[in-house]
UniProtKB/TrEMBL annotation:
<dbReference type="GO" id="GO:0005886">
    <property type="term" value="C:plasma membrane"/>
</dbReference>
<dbReference type="GO" id="GO:0009055">
    <property type="term" value="F:electron transfer activity"/>
</dbReference>
<keyword id="KW-0336">GPI-anchor</keyword>
<keyword id="KW-0732">Signal</keyword>
<dbReference type="InterPro" id="IPR039391">
    <property type="entry name" value="Phytocyanin-like"/>
</dbReference>
<comment type="similarity">
    <text>Belongs to the early nodulin-like (ENODL) family.</text>
</comment>
<dbReference type="GO" id="GO:0098552">
    <property type="term" value="C:side of membrane"/>
</dbReference>
<keyword id="KW-0472">Membrane</keyword>
<dbReference type="InterPro" id="IPR008972">
    <property type="entry name" value="Cupredoxin"/>
</dbReference>
<keyword id="KW-0449">Lipoprotein</keyword>
<feature type="domain" description="Phytocyanin">
    <location>
        <begin position="25"/>
        <end position="124"/>
    </location>
</feature>
<keyword id="KW-1133">Transmembrane helix</keyword>
<keyword id="KW-0812">Transmembrane</keyword>
<keyword id="KW-1015">Disulfide bond</keyword>
<feature type="signal peptide">
    <location>
        <begin position="1"/>
        <end position="24"/>
    </location>
</feature>
<keyword id="KW-0325">Glycoprotein</keyword>
<dbReference type="Pfam" id="PF02298">
    <property type="entry name" value="Cu_bind_like"/>
</dbReference>
Length: 172
């Protein structure tokens, strides 16, 4: 086999690695004041979903804002110095960039007190079996509840084995 053909095959194989890259899921939610003050609409929704590092939340709203605050500010429903603030018109996309708890409240006066707040628990990186189960569950859900945009993960040893095989092929 000509060396130029081997080189082309090598680059094609190398460029296909991005197919195995694990991306997060995007969860969409309508960010509005709940109809009843006693409803825990957003925390109920959050408890029905599993969030991992690199997942994103897409808040859809009209004339509102999204703030990430400390636990204390979440309890008080007020923050003069939020960790994150956005009011991009009609939607905000927020990436869950670490494991742990995220506390969200509306930045509009009175909305948080009326139930427009949410706690998200982000898990450590999921194992392949968790991701596959989660993808199957998410695909059956309505896009309003959440939407999956992930791919199956591949292990590091499998990638290493593939690279070694390619170099073995190139040396033929």
């Amino acid at each position: 086999m000509k060396s130029s053909t081997k080189l082309v095959l090598f680059f094609l194989l190398l460029s296909s690695f991005n197919l195995f890259y694990v991306t997060g899921k995007e969860f969409q939610l309508d960010w509005e004041v709940p109809k009843s003050r006693t409803q825990q609409v957003y925390n109920q929704w959050a408890s029905e979903n599993r969030f991992n590092v690199n997942d994103t939340l897409n808040f859809k709203y009209k004339k509102d804002s999204v703030m990430v605050v400390s636990e204390e500010e979440y309890e008080k429903c007020h923050s003069s110095h939020p960790l994150y603030f956005s009011n991009n018109g009609d939607s905000t996309v927020f990436e869950l960039d670490r494991p742990g708890l995220f506390f969200f409240i509306s930045g509009v006066a009175g909305h948080c007190q009326r139930g427009q707040k949410m706690i998200i628990k982000v898990l450590e990186h999921a194992s392949p079996s968790q991701s596959q189960t989660q993808n199957a569950t998410t695909k059956g859900s309505s896009s309003k509840k959440n939407a999956a945009i992930g791919m199956l993960p591949i292990s590091s040893p499998a990638i290493l084995l593939l690279i070694i095989s390619v170099f073995g092929f190139l040396s033929l």
